[in-house]
Design a protein that fits this description.
By secondary structure, the protein is mostly beta strands. It is built from three helices and 26 strands.
Length: about 450
């Protein structure tokens, strides 16, 4: 049975890795860092780094994988819609989008964890391995070709994915540690398979290109980052479950040295190179369960994150003919506060074969983008986000969707998580931008629907 289970999960993993629906998220949060990597976390405002008790712990806190029994698999997707609005000081209005009414294909995540004894390695009881596929940094925005800002931007995309081989070790009942690699790369089946920015040639440009001609700079790279984490559990219930967790996660950013082409009207004019410096991110998290017994659980969590974007100073496009297209960024740093709660009914009388979770959350995020260098590809601002969510975990005796036994296929349980989040960006009045055309009011609203499926073996 163990061999069949492992084979099934490997097939599922390979299928999803090859599936074009694993598209990076066109959602920008602080900077262009994505916070949502699982519906259970999204429903709690992504305040999950101290709880970290499902396979998305691979991202949120690898040390939390030591809380997971057996082999566990989860995959999820986001339905994202929203609008970007710019009211120029000179009069014209511009409306941008995330590519379509709802992002298509929808961005998705994948996680697989295994407690080593479940793989037959019974002499390694304190070790858990995992792998994840996420899009922690992403952009996808579009503006009309005939808008006021077309000479500055008509499209930007960063279809970056992160492959995360991860390992965790339970030191004792109080402390666990974890860490892994972040392999940032691009894939041909995701978007165009490279980062790109587009704009229309301005009249009288230095290259002598006819005004209105579509210009594109693109590039790709594979870069290596890493992460390390700690989970401390000073208090447990009589059943051994955490009553208080404290977590710390460090994510080391990588430098993407992008190499590609500079095109005009679809014709290659030169090779192109630029560098994106991804930030170091620090997360401190604490979760407490005021109620945790055999009938119900109530968790409250607060996470604080610091993202150091100060190394991202420019996005200059260096051409093989010796020319340079200057693109100053000069990002700063940013703090993010995430608050979430979860209330769980364990095998309630109205649904005895299920555990039912009710979730809500709040996020307050600063922006590292300065007014002077704000760009249409990332018109970021401080924002408030509000979320709600539901979770259903089906176990012995239950039937998923009324059809599939929840302990079928050699499994122990099947989970389904749903969430909705709205991100309300503060209207940003720009007066001193390095591109005078961008002076005016920028306003963004984004809606996110999240769904995740979890299998436990």
């Amino acid at each position: 049975m163990r061999t069949q289970t492992i084979r099934l999960l490997l097939y599922a993993t390979l299928f999803l890795l090859a599936n074009p629906f694993l598209s990076p998220s066109p959602l920008f949060a602080e900077g262009f860092r994505v916070l949502d990597h699982g519906a259970a976390a999204t429903g709690q405002g992504a305040a999950f780094s101290a709880q970290a008790d499902n396979p998305s712990a691979v991202h949120y806190n690898p040390a939390g994988m030591t809380q997971l029994e057996g082999i566990q698999f989860s995959t999820g997707t986001l339905l994202i819609g929203g609008s970007l609005r710019f009211n120029s000081d000179s009069g014209p209005k511009v409306k941008g989008s995330l590519g379509s009414t709802v992002s298509n294909p929808p961005p998705s995540t994948l996680f697989l964890t295994a407690h080593l004894p479940a793989l037959g390695l019974t002499n390694l009881p304190n070790w858990t391995v995992g792998v994840g596929l996420t899009s922690p940094f992403a952009l996808q925005v579009k503006y009309p070709d005939n808008s006021l800002i077309a000479p500055i931007s008509t499209m930007a995309a960063l279809p970056l994915i992160d492959i995360k081989p991860t390992l965790a070790y339970k030191v004792n009942d109080y402390i666990a540690i974890g860490g892994g690699l972040d392999i940032y790369t691009f894939a041909d089946f995701l978007g165009e398979g490279h980062a790109e920015i587009q704009q229309n040639a301005a009249p009288g440009n230095a290259f002598g290109i006819p005004a209105g001609t579509n210009l594109e700079g693109n590039g790709r790279d594979t870069a290596l980052g890493f992460n390390a984490s700690l989970l401390w559990t000073p208090f447990r219930t009589a059943q051994g479950l955490p009553q208080l967790n404290a977590g710390f996660v460090y994510r080391h950013g990588a430098d993407l040295d992008l190499h590609g082409d500079f095109l005009a009207g679809g014709t290659r004019l030169a090779g192109a190179q630029t560098t994106i410096e991804l930030p170091d991110v620090y997360t401190w998290a604490i979760a407490a369960w005021p109620i945790r017994n055999l009938q119900r659980e109530w968790k409250v969590e607060v996470d604080v994150e610091y993202a150091d974007w100060t190394d991202f100073e420019d996005l200059n496009l260096n051409l093989s003919n010796g020319a340079t297209i200057s693109n100053r960024r000069n990002y700063g740093d940013a703090w993010v506060v995430l608050v979430g709660t979860e209330y769980v009914l364990l095998s309630p009388s109205f649904l005895p074969q299920w555990d039912v979770s009710f979730r809500s959350g709040y996020v307050r995020s600063e922006t590292p983008v300065r007014s002077r260098t704000l760009d249409p590809s990332n018109p970021d601002s401080d924002f408030n986000a509000f979320s709600v969510g539901l979770g259903f975990l089906c176990h012995t005796g239950g039937h998923f969707l009324g059809i599939l036994p929840c302990t079928g296929l050699g499994g122990k349980a099947i989970g389904l998580d749903l969430a909705y989040q709205v991100l309300l960006y503060e209207a940003r009045n720009i007066k001193n931008n390095q591109q005078p055309l961008l002076n005016g009011t920028w306003d963004t609203t984004i809606h996110v629907g999240a769904v995740s499926l979890r299998l436990m073996f």
